[in-house]
Design goal:
Strand content: 5-15%
Number of domains: 2
Structural class: alpha+beta
CATH topology of the largest domain: L,D-transpeptidase catalytic domain-like
CATH architecture of the largest domain: Beta Barrel
Radius of gyration: 20 Å
Number of helices: 9
Oligomer: single chain
CATH class of the largest domain: Mainly Beta
Order of helices and strands: HHHEHHHHEHEEEEEEEEEEEHE
Helix content: 10-25%
C-alpha cells in the first residue's frame, strides 16, 4: 500500500472498443522530450497545513471520509459522493486484501481499526476557484459524431463538470456540499460571492451555464495524491490533464493487472505480487463480451483522438459516416487509451464517470478519467494483463 503522504497520438476506433489496425506508439521506448514543470496548484491538497480546516464542515460525513482515504491509497471508490455502493465496497475489499484482512467489503471492526491512522484527514475542505481554472473554454458537446469532429476538442461542457472531475466526484455532490452556492458550515450565505443564476442559454449549441464561478469559495471532497513532481512530465498537454484531474505524477509500478468480469474490478499488482490498486470498471456487454484470457500492452496513448467508424458499432445510427474526433475528457474514450495485444481492445476513460460499474461498455474496460490517468502511469509494455470471468 502506498503511504498516504505520497503525492500521489494513437488514432483508433471502437466497436467492442475495436481499434484501427494502426499500431500505437510504444511509449516505453520513446525518447523523452524536454521536461515540463508543473506550476503550483492552488487546488492541491496540503494535509499538513492547519488552515485547511479554517471553515469546518457542518457534518462529519464518515462514508465520504473513508472514500477520500481509500481514493488516496489507490483503492478508489469511483466517484467520491458519500454514498455506500458497489464501487465503495470494491475499494474497501481492495484495502482489506492489501492489508491481509478478511475481505468482506464492509467497514467492519478490523477495517475501521486499520483506517484509524487516517482519521485526521477530513472528508472535505474549502477551496477558492482560480480564475484560470474557471476560464474554460466550455463547449456543449453534440451527440452526433460528425458534429463532434468539427470541434477543436471534446472538453468540459461546464465549470461544474470540470470541478467534479478535479475532485473525483459528481456535480450533484458539489451542490450538496455547497447549499445555496455556499460551503456547508458557512456562518451565513451573505458572506459568499453571489453565483450567477443558471439559465437556459439562448443558443442551443452554447455551453450550459455553470452553478459555480471564478473566485467562489466551495467545499469539495478532500481528495489528495495530486502533487506533480517538478520536471516529471515530458508532455505539456498530459501535464495539464493530470493537474485538471487531480492526479499526481508519483504512482507505483504495476507488473500485472487482473480484470474480473464478475466482480467488476481492475486490480494492479507490483513485482512482489502485492495489490497496489483497485478500480471499479465497466467491461463488455451481451453484444461485445469481455475477451477472457492473457494479454499484453502494445502502448499507451494519452489525450487520444478517436477514429469513429459506424461499421464497427452495433448501435450506430444508420447512414452514419466515419469521423475523426478530437481529444478531450468528453471524448468516447476519455483521456487515455491503453492498447492491448487482443486486437481492437483496450482500457480507457469515459465522459460519464458516474456510470462506471452501472452501464455496459462496447467490450473494452472502462474506468473514470482520473483512475485511467493513474493507471497510465503505472503500466508499461511489460505489464501483463489477465481477463477473468
Amino acid at each position: 500500500m502506498r503511504p498516504i503522504t505520497l503525492a500521489l497520438p494513437i488514432l483508433f476506433a471502437l466497436a467492442a472498443c475495436k481499434v484501427s489496425d494502426k499500431a500505437p506508439d510504444n511509449t516505453a521506448t520513446q525518447a523523452p522530450a524536454a521536461l515540463s514543470v508543473a506550476a503550483p496548484d492552488p487546488l492541491a491538497a496540503h494535509d499538513n497545513q492547519a488552515n485547511q480546516q479554517e471553515l469546518p464542515d457542518s457534518e462529519a460525513r464518515p462514508v465520504m471520509q473513508a472514500q477520500v482515504v481509500l481514493d488516496r491509497l489507490g483503492f478508489t471508490p469511483g466517484v467520491v459522493d458519500g454514498k455506500p455502493g458497489l464501487s465503495t465496497r470494491n475499494a474497501v475489499s481492495g484495502f482489506q486484501e492489501a492489508n491481509e484482512l478478511a475481505v468482506t467489503g464492509k467497514m467492519d471492526a478490523a477495517t475501521t481499526a486499520a483506517l484509524a491512522q487516517y482519521q485526521a484527514i477530513p472528508a472535505t475542505r474549502v477551496v477558492t476557484i482560480p480564475d484560470d481554472f474557471a476560464a474554460g473554454p466550455f463547449t456543449k458537446i453534440p451527440k452526433d459524431p460528425q458534429e463532434q469532429a468539427k470541434l477543436p476538442g471534446l472538453g468540459y461542457e461546464t465549470l461544474d463538470e470540470k470541478l467534479a472531475e478535479r475532485f473525483h466526484t459528481t456535480v450533484a455532490t458539489l451542490k450538496l456540499l455547497n447549499p445555496g452556492g455556499v460551503p456547508a458550515g458557512s456562518p451565513s450565505v451573505s458572506s459568499a460571492s453571489p453565483a450567477p443564476s443558471p439559465t437556459a442559454p439562448l443558443d442551443p449549441m452554447a455551453a450550459p451555464v455553470s452553478t459555480f464561478h471564478a473566485g467562489q469559495q466551495i467545499r469539495i471532497p478532500n481528495v489528495g495524491g495530486d502533487a506533480i513532481a517538478s520536471g516529471s512530465v515530458s508532455d505539456p498537454a498530459w501535464l495539464t490533464t493530470l493537474a485538471s484531474l487531480g492526479v499526481g505524477s508519483e504512482q507505483p509500478k504495476a507488473a500485472r493487472i487482473v480484470v474480473s468480469k464478475s466482480k467488476g474490478t481492475l486490480k494492479a499488482y507490483d513485482e512482489g505480487d502485492k495489490l497496489i490498486a483497485v478500480y471499479t470498471a465497466t467491461m463488455g456487454s451481451t453484444h461485445d463480451p469481455l475477451p477472457l484470457g492473457d494479454w499484453g500492452i502494445n502502448g499507451i496513448d494519452r489525450n487520444p483522438k478517436f477514429a469513429y467508424n459506424p461499421a464497427l458499432f452495433w448501435d450506430a445510427k444508420p447512414g452514419s459516416d466515419k469521423a475523426m474526433l478530437p481529444p478531450g475528457p468528453n471524448g468516447p474514450v476519455g483521456v487515455v487509451w491503453i492498447d492491448l495485444t487482443k486486437p481492437h481492445y483496450g482500457i480507457h476513460g469515459t465522459p460519464k464517470p458516474e456510470t462506471i460499474g452501472r452501464a455496459e461498455s462496447h467490450g473494452c474496460v472502462r474506468l473514470t478519467n482520473w483512475d485511467v490517468a493513474r493507471l497510465a502511469q503505472m503500466v508499461s509494455v511489460k505489464t501483463k494483463v489477465h481477463f477473468e470471468a
